[in-house]
Structures are given as C-alpha cells and as structure tokens.
Specification:
The complex is a heterodimer. Chain A has ten helices and six strands, in the order αββαββαβααβααααα. By secondary structure, chain A is an alpha+beta fold. Chain A folds into two domains: 215 residues, Multidrug efflux transporter AcrB transmembrane fold (Up-down Bundle), CATH 1.20.1640; 88 residues, ACT domain (Alpha-Beta Plaits, 2-Layer Sandwich), CATH 3.30.70.260. Chain B folds into three domains: 217 residues, Multidrug efflux transporter AcrB transmembrane domain (Multidrug efflux transporter AcrB transmembrane fold), CATH 1.20.1640.10; 111 residues, no CATH class; 137 residues, Gyrase A, domain 2. The radius of gyration of chain B is 31 Å and the shape is elongated. Classes of the chains: A alpha+beta, B alpha+beta.
Chain lengths: 334, 527
C-alpha cells in the first residue's frame, strides 16, 4: 500500500468499473427480457403471487399448518420466498409469497391440497386461497423518485460546497466519484440479484453518503498536506498519491466499522436462521455499498483527481508565465 | 482543576451515562411481577420490516370472495344458497364472484347475458379496480407512512397494507396499551383512506340541494344533512388542495380554496355563521355517506384557505390525505368493504428487531474495545462517550417519534462511525503532536485545533444533506434523513464533550509528558 501509485492506475480503475457496470447492465437487461424486471424487485415494488391459509388455532396448530403447507408446495413444485403469520380473535392466517415467475397452476393445486388437508385436520374450519397475482406496481414510483431527487440534490450541494471550501477540481472529482459509485452499486445489485426493497432504496442513499464522507476526509487531508513544503516540492501525481495513502486509514476505519456491524448481522442471520432472514438482503446490500464506497473513494477518486490536478497545475503554471513572464516564472520556480 | 473536583466530575458523568444507557436499553420485570419496565429503545416505533403490517382486503360493492361464496353455497341449502348461485358469476381466476347486476352495469344493453359481454364486463371492472388502486396508492403515499403497499388481488379486490409501527414492547406483547393504540392508528388509516364516494359539504339545516337528504331519508338515517354548495358548481372546482399542518403541538388540516371556492365558501359561511338563520353552525365534510370532519363557522370565511383543528397528528394526516384526494377530483369508483384489519408478523422473520438490537450492541462493544486497545485510558473515556452517544441517539429518536427501520439502523451505525472517526482523527493528531515533543496539554490543544476544520466540514456537509433527505424524501429514506440529522448533531456536540472530558481527566496527571499511553519521544531532553 505504501508504494501504490493510484494516479498511474486511472485507466485500470476505469476499465474495472466499466466492466462491472457493463456486466450489471447486461445481466439486468437479460433478466428484464426473461423475467420482466431489471432488478430483483422485492414484494414492496413488484407483483407477487400468494397463497393464504386460514385456520382456527383451536382446531389445528400453526406448526401443523406450516408443515403440511410446506409439503403441499414441495409436491407441486412451487417455492415461496417469505411468509407472514397473523392471529386474530376468530381465525389465524399464514400468507405465503411467491415470485411472479412461479406457476399459477402449481399454486392452485397446492392451495387445493392445503385446503383438503386443513379441512380434514381442522374439521372443515380451514380455507386456503391461491391468489394468482398480487399486482403491487402502484407503490414503486414515489419513494424511488423522491429518493432520486434527494440524492441528486445532495450530490449537487456537495459539489457546490467542495468547490467553495476546497477546489473546483476536488469538487469535480467528488462529483464523478458519487456518480461512479452509484453506477457501480446499482450494477452490483443487478448482478447479485439482491432483492430491492424499500430498505435497499434507502441504503442506496446511504451509499452516496458514505462516498461523501470519504471524499470529505480525503480532500481535507490533501488540502492540509498540499500546503506543506515537502508536498510543494513533489510533482502533482506524487502529491495526490501520498495524501491518499495518508487518508486511507481514516476512511477505512469509518467504513470498516460499519462493515463490521453489517458482517456481525450477516453472521447472526446465518446463526438465527428462519426468524431473522429479512435482515440478510439489507445487510448484503450494505456490504456492497461499503465495498463500492471504499473502492470508489480510495482508489477511483484519487486517480481521477490526480489527472484533474495535473491539468489545473499546468493551467496555473501557464497563467503564471503569462502574467509574470517566462524568465521571472522560471526564476521563482527555482 | 483539582484532583477531587476532577474525580467527582468524572464519576458523575460516568454514573449518569451508565444510568442513561441502562434505562435506554434494558427492559425488565419490576418487583411483584405485575408491572414491567420497558426501556426507551423498546418504546421506539419500528417500521414494517421490523414490526409487521396491518392489512385489509377491500372488496368492491357486488364482489365477494370465493371463500364466502363456497361456504354459503355449501352450508346453506335454503334460499340464500340459491340466491348466491343465481346472482353471482365466478370471476376469471376463480378467487372472486361478482354480482350479475354489477356486470350488467357494464353491458351496453344493460344485461351481460352472453359470454362475450361478461368477458368485456369483467375487463372493464378490472380496469376500474386498477384505477381505484392507483388512487388509493396516492392517498397512502400522501399519508407519509414509512412504507405502505397497495396491490390488486386477482384483478377484483385490493389489498392495502400499512405498517403497524409497533414499538418492540408492543410487538412482543410487553406493552398492551401502546399495542392497542398503534393498532387503532393503523386501522384508522385504512378505514379513512379507503373511503369511497365523492366529497360533499353539508349542514343539518341549510342547503341548496335536496338529493342528499333524500338519500339519507331513504336509507333511514336519523340525521338528515343538506348539501350547501350551489347546484351549478362542481366541488372539485372549489378546492386547490388539502394538507397536513402542525404547529406547537396543535394539528390541523389546511384547506386551500380556488377563487371560486373562496367566493362560494364565503357566501355559505356568512349564512351558516348567522345564528338567527341557522342553529347548526358547522360545515360537515362528507365522503360518500361518511362524515369525515367538520368546520365550525362562528364568522364568515374571507380567506382563500382555512384550518380545521384535529386532536392528533395521525388523524390530521388521514383527513388531509383523504380530503386532498377527493377534493381534487379523485374519488374512488366503488364503495369498498372489508372484513377486518389483519395484523401480520414481519415478512423478514419474527425476531428481526431483536437480532438487530443484539447486532447493534455487539457493534458498540467492538468499537469500544477497539478504542481501549488503541488509546488505553483515553479509549475508556471515549467508550463512555460512545455509550452516551448511543443513549442520546435512542432518547432523541424516541422523543422525536422517528420510525426505526433496517436502513435507519445502518444510518445509526454510520453516525456512530462518524462520531468514532471524528474522535480518533483528533486522538491521532494529538498522538502526533505528543510524539513531536509537546506537553500533553499543548498536544491536546493543538490536536483539536488542527482537526477542527476537517471535522466541522464533514459535519456541516452531513447536516445539510440530512436536512435535504428528511425534507425531500418520503418513507424510509426520510426516516433515515431524520436519524442522520440527530446523529450528526449528537456526534459534533459529543466530540466537544469528549474534549471537555480530556480536560477533566488530564488535570490530575502527574507526568505532564506522559498521559493515556501517549509518550513524548524527546522526553529526556526536558527532564
């Protein structure tokens, strides 16, 4: 790490990012044309199919209902991705949710099989209904649109703030970093097929925030270091590389702590199994966001900034020559 | 500061922090076994992925479920079964049955008696239900819930779900009072937002139209009301919007009128406010045949907007969302009925909230252990501040009433990371200054001074972004914005409180060149 020259690796980073984004785009399009959705939308945003089983707990226990339902689904070749239970005064219910790609016939047959078994077990008090389709497309637009507007506003604000507080080139690099990280994050969502729920939409905002924090820490470090005589003597690329190396630990500790929390949760999810499976996808998404932020902020942004800084330095030198005169500029440079 | 004073302040801060943290996170049974103390954390409202949903299946007038049909036909061998067989036709998919009169309403000749006509009628009915679902989705979105779901079941019924927003104490059954209050809020949201029918403004005595009272008389209603708006006007031409309004603990629905609306309401309110003409001085807002809200008219309305006071925030939001929809020309095509509101466990697993809390506790212990390992006594001081930070976050999120979701918990982790990062950044700078040969007092002063701008910058950026998120976003992202706002403020304030605790704890240090594991390299030169 001490000898890593980020500035000379910009092309490599661009190639890596382009490949990931291209693969994400390709996979998303393949899934779009084969199963109708670019991302793996969760039940909050996509249509799903369901089977609802109603029963009286006085007649049949919930465990028995779960067991015979599982058998009925397995026998008819359908697989649910989640279920919810509810217990009311008059009856209890279990609702199984299936992706829209599951066979309607399979669901109907499974519902009939459950119905027959629940009715026998529970003295004709049970009832299973298979809903062929629950179209939930009504929910999607608003949350995503406003989250998008908020992210765009935040990125623009950060650009303006960095341009005033630091330098225009830094603001530009941070802006490119935000866009790059978002593109990478969404590409990885398409590749990993993480289920996109309302939590994941909120976590995409989280990914941008992480980039902003990282860029803030990095540019603060650069600004301070660039003022020292040791840095002034270095070429542009070396300045950026050295400052990035110094800022690496601070940013990694912040990201690392959140990553540790997400990994702890993933481990707990694996240990606890069925009763906490809802944590798995958001945790996985958070880990992706952290990995993207670390790569984007600590590797991609410095390499892009080094080019911008080189151009800015050359431009500044040119202006110095123009206004001070070549000979005088050379003298002052000496 | 003397040793005793320093020890007393440190002890007070430590004890207060520990007490706050324990009250914040530990729930326990009280002696006697009847009552129970529920911690502040257990009292925070949770999003749907942590506490489940409340849902209802809405059936349009004339549509029944296959379950109802089959039970009636199977159980009842008399007239009712025959009536059901004769009056209802199975909808495509078989999950619902539709009354023939409903289908007849879609046929051009008034009778859907051929297979083609029935298919066309089912298609048209499905489209109407879809359109109503879109309107309902907009109403629920306006209601400002952390999540909601509106879906069409097999084309002929609508399933609406809202988060129960239970606290963990309610969810686990430890706090039955809050549970029933949360259930009421969820039920009320479903009940009001799914009201069908158009908006009418009514009064018990004064009115220009008779159809309303005729309908009520025909239905045998004990109260007969009259429509107060001139027959030549459409009600949707009178209103611009209705919105939720809150100020200083009071809640209201703000109704904005168009020019025509202001003129008409001014005319009508002048009559209603005159006690000599009318004794009922209220304008009642009806949606369909349900009285939703009423405005008491003591004086004539002269402004283009007015406020109608409501008891609580949830009710005000329900009314505002419903009125905004119906007043702007978006009533539902059908009246819907539902059996009961059903409360489910969370779709992510019943114990998600508990495991999230355990993970958060482990993460807190990890950061505290890391700080002690790296900064020794100073790490202990930071650990105390991390406990205080966590307790403050819990207390403020609880007091503000923000709903905690999975993304919100990650945002809290980010805030804790920000707090830890800011402090470690300063500590590292102090270590650097100390190694350069400065006394510990000078190192602390210079370390904090040098890191001031960087830490301030990060906090300013996050503070403004959190405000943008909280104001612009809806649902879960807005809740995250609120948590980020609380966390950023707490992080910056406690960063300086840590500086204060530095001052307090370093006072009794005998060796001013050696403190908390930081050792000056050139120390011999000074001795």
């Amino acid at each position: 790490m001490n000898k890593l020259r980020l500035s000379s690796k910009m092309h490599l980073f661009i190639i890596i990012s382009c490949i990931v984004v291209a693969v994400g785009l390709a996979m998303g399009l393949v899934f779009h044309f084969t199963s109708g959705s670019f991302f793996n939308w969760g039940g909050d945003y996509a249509s799903y199919r369901s089977v609802e089983v109603k029963y009286s707990v006085h007649e049949i226990s919930t465990d028995e209902v779960l067991e015979l339902s599982d058998k009925a689904f397995a026998d008819n070749g359908v697989e649910y991705y989640t279920f919810v239970t509810s217990g009311m005064s008059t009856e209890s219910r279990v609702e199984y949710r299936f992706t829209a790609s599951q066979s309607v016939e399979g669901l109907q047959k499974a519902a009939e099989a459950i119905n027959a078994k629940v009715s026998i077990e529970a003295d004709k008090t049970g009832f299973a209904t298979a809903y062929a389709d629950l179209s939930s497309v009504f929910n999607s637009n608003r949350d995503i649109m406003y989250a998008g507007i908020a992210v765009a506003a935040a990125v623009v604000f950060q650009f303006i703030y960095f341009a005033i507080r630091y330098k225009l080139t830094m603001a530009l690099a941070a802006f490119i970093g935000d866009v790059h990280n978002l593109a990478l994050f969404y590409a990885l969502l398409a590749i990993t097929r993480v289920q996109v729920s309302s939590s994941v939409i909120a976590l995409s905002v989280f990914a941008v925030l992480l980039t902003m924090i990282g860029c803030g820490v990095l540019f603060e470090k650069m600004r301070k270091n660039f003022r020292t005589d040791e840095y002034k003597a270095m070429p542009s690329f070396d300045q950026v590389d050295s400052a990035s190396r110094e800022g690496f630990l601070s940013v990694t500790i912040i990201y690392g702590f959140i990553a540790a929390a997400a990994i702890i949760m993933l481990v707990l999810t694996a240990i606890a199994g069925g009763t906490v499976f809802g944590l798995f996808m958001p945790c996985l998404c958070a880990v992706i966001a952290l990995a993207v932020s670390e790569y984007g902020t600590m590797f991609f942004v410095p390499s892009v900034y080094s080019r911008l800084k080189l151009r800015a330095d050359k431009y500044a030198a040119g202006r110095a020559v123009k206004y001070v005169g070549a000979a005088k500029a050379a003298k002052s440079a000496d | 500061m003397g040793k005793i004073k320093s020890a007393v302040i440190t002890a007070i801060v430590a004890l207060a922090t520990l007490a706050l943290f324990l009250f914040g996170v530990v729930s326990c049974a009280l002696p006697g076994g009847v009552n129970r103390y529920n911690s502040i954390l257990a009292g925070i409202h949770l999003g749907s992925e942590l506490s489940g949903d409340a849902y209802a299946v809405l059936l349009p007038d004339g549509v029944i479920s296959a379950e109802e049909y089959e039970f009636t036909v199977a159980e009842d061998s008399g007239d009712k079964a025959a009536e059901y067989r004769e009056d209802y036709t199975a909808a495509p998919g078989g999950a619902y049955y539709v009354k023939n009169t409903v289908l007849d309403g879609y046929a051009e000749d008034g009778s859907a008696d051929t297979a083609a006509e029935r298919t066309a009628a089912f298609d048209a009915l499905e489209k109407d239900v879809q359109a109503d679902a879109s309107i309902l989705a907009k109403r629920f979105a306006d209601r400002n819930l952390t999540s909601y779901s509106v879906g069409v079941l097999d084309g002929f019924a609508i399933r609406v779900a809202v988060p129960t927003n239970f606290s963990y104490a309610s969810y686990s059954g430890s706090d039955t009072t809050s549970r029933s209050s949360d259930l009421n809020v969820a039920s009320a949201a479903i009940s009001y937002l799914t009201l069908g029918g158009e908006l009418t403004l009514r009064n018990n005595e004064y009115g220009t139209r008779d159809e309303v009272s005729a309908a009520q008389q025909a239905a045998g209603s004990s109260t007969v009301t009259r429509n107060i708006i001139s027959a030549s006007l459409n009600v949707e031409d009178l209103f611009e919007s209705a919105s939720y309004y809150a100020m200083g603990g009071s809640y209201a629905v703000k109704v904005n009128l168009t020019e025509a609306g202001a003129e008409e309401l001014s005319r009508v309110s002048a009559i209603i406010a005159d006690t000599e003409q009318v004794s009922d001085q209220s304008i009642k807002f009806y949606v369909g045949e349900t009285s939703v809200i009423q405005l008491t008219c003591d004086t004539q309305l002269t402004e283009s907007s007015f406020y109608i006071g409501v008891n609580d925030a949830a009710t005000a939001r329900n009314y505002a969302s419903l009125l905004n929809s119906v007043a702007t020309g978006n009533p539902l095509a059908f009246e819907y009925s539902y059996g009961e509101v059903i409360y489910t466990t969370t779709a992510g697993g019943a114990n998600t909230a508990m495991f999230l809390a355990i993970a958060a506790l482990i993460a807190l212990v990890v950061v505290m252990a890391f700080s002690v390992a790296c900064y020794k006594k100073l790490g202990l001081m930071f650990s105390l501040m991390a406990l205080l930070f966590s307790s403050l976050m819990i207390a403020i999120v609880y007091l503000v009433g923000t709903t905690l979701t999975i993304a919100g918990v990650f945002t809290s982790f980010m805030c804790l990371a920000l707090f830890a990062g800011s402090n470690f950044f300063s500590f590292e700078q102090i270590r650097k200054e100390s190694k350069a040969g400065r006394t510990i007092q000078a190192s602390v002063k210079l370390g904090y001074k040098k890191t001031l701008t960087g830490i301030l910058d990060t906090h300013i950026v996050l503070l403004i972004i959190s405000i943008i998120l909280a104001l612009v976003c809806t649902g879960e992202a807005a809740a995250c914005g609120m948590i980020l706002l609380i966390g950023t403020l707490a992080s910056y304030i406690l960063h300086w409180f840590t500086r204060f605790m530095w001052y307090v704890t370093m006072t009794p240090a005998r060796d001013k060149y050696k403190f908390c594991g930081f050792k000056r390299e050139a120390i011999e030169d000074y001795e």
